[in-house]
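Q: Structure tokens for this one, please.
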Amino acid sequence: MTEEPRYGVLVVGAGFIADAHIQAITVDPRAELVGLVDVDPGRAMAFSYSHGGVRWTADLDTALGWPEVDAVIVCTPNMTHASIAEQVVRAGKHLLVEKPLATTVADARQAARRFADAGLTLAAAHTHRCYDYGMAVKDAIDEGVVGQPLLARLAILGSWIWPDWRAWVLDPAKSGGHSLHNGVHLLDLATWWLGDEPVSIYARGQKQSSAALRIYDHLDMTVTVANGATASCEMSRAHRPAGFGARELLVAGTDGVLSQDWDGESSLLFSDQGLQAVPAVGGNGFARQLSAWLDSIEGAEPVMPTADAVRAVALGVAAELSIARREPVMLEEVLDLTGASV
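A: Here is the predicted structure, written as tokens:
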């Protein structure tokens, strides 16, 4: 017998990323899409029709009042995350919000406090933690196959993905900058692999596609963690030709080196025992993320703890600050900030 859904999920924001989250909802028997919200009524209506005529509205407070809504997935621009999180927590709903959790450390901390005080689950959608390659590397490190990690190198290189120059991502006041919007994936993942708290970051940005850009579409970011290990992260949306995509990673430790080139999911382990393959775990990252979120609502340990989501915001903000100053920035300084991001 098919298990009845236990969680009615409301999706906020009818952009392209919402499709990935909705597909994840359809494969987990515990969840059911019960509505969607978008500030553009025409877009909300069209999105509803393309998803079976699900209930829709342009007003979030109205949707949060629907009795069948238990949890919310937010797929809206970055600058809206903090205010929407406040609406959701006031309505008493669990929340999964697209990364970053907020565009300032102060707002991220406020959201974390509000949900914790309310006894509700808050998660940021750092989906790369749930991708096959991310989990395979983390599992291998935790199993000790490279010994103590000393260096993580991660590069995710791609071409231009934004529709036109009006895209909100290209406005740092709305996105928080490219370090916080896309670079944060790498900053979080590499720090997670190294398994220690970041203490400083040095970032450099380039405007490869056009000097008229207000963000840096190519990022080079180096994070140092408390035990002295380092992570080198390269993020690009400036590569050519169109449609180009590549991922490269390397984790070097005291007992071995994990290497993965281009778009593979499995890794190679170089150690005293010779060359071995480290297979990926298999599965869909968005589906796994949704399942982990529902598990955490039910009391399981989260894949992306709220404290890590706040730290990821701090890393992204610090990277933007480092680019502006052209010098390393200590995370302690950024974690003390209470105002808007750079």
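A few notes: Residues 155 and 234 are 5 Å apart (CA to CA). The chain has a mean pLDDT of 91.
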